[in-house]
Amino acid sequence: MDSIPSLLGLAFRAGKLAVGEEPVGVACRVHKAYLLLLAHDAADNTIRRALHLTQGGNSICLTLPYSKAELGGCLGRASCAMLAITDVGFAAAAAKKMAQADPEQYGQALEVLSKKAERAKKCRNEKKKQTKGSKPRGKSSPGENPSQRNKPR
C-alpha cells in the first residue's frame, strides 16, 4: 500500500488533487471530483460532510488505511483528513491499488472508476480523430474569392 501515497503525491504535483474541506467541497459541487478519500482517523463531522458532498455528485467516498499525518506527509503538509482526486485516470489507478490490497472493501469502487476511465479514454480518442481530419483554413485576401483560392491562374 506504499504506492498509494506516492500516487497521491504525483496527483498533487500534477494539480489533480483537491486537499482540505473547502477545495474538496468546491470540486464536488462542480462535479469535478471522481474519488473522495478520507483518513481513517478523520473526525465524525468530517466524515458526515464528506458523505454529504458525494451524495450530490458523481464521486465515490472511500476511507484510506492511513492517518491524517501520513496523508499530510505524502502531500507536504502537516495533516490532511479529506482529499479529492479530480482526474479519472488517477482515481482509477488509486482504486486499483486499493483494491489489490483489499478487494472486498474497494472492489466496487474500482469497477465504477474503471468504466468511467474507459469512457473518458474513448472520448479523448474520438476527439483526436476529429481534430486530425479537419484541415486548418488560411485567411483569404480581402478581394479574393475563397472558392478560387487554389485554382491556377
Textual characterization of the structure:
The chain is of the alpha+beta class. The chain has helices spanning 3-13, 21-29, 44-56, 68-74, 88-101, 103-133; strands at 17-19, 35-38, 60-63, 82-85. It has a 4-stranded mixed beta sheet with strand order 1-4-2-3, with helices on both faces. Strand 2 (35-38), helix 3 (44-56) and strand 3 (60-63) form a beta-alpha-beta unit. Helix 2 runs parallel beside helix 3. The radius of gyration is 22 Å and the shape is elongated.
List the helices and strands and how they pair.
Elements: H1 3-13, E1 17-19, H2 21-29, E2 35-38, H3 44-56, E3 60-63, H4 68-74, E4 82-85, H5 88-101, H6 103-133
Parallel strand pairs: 2-3
Antiparallel strand pairs: 1-4, 2-4
Helix pairs in contact: 1-5, 2-3, 5-6
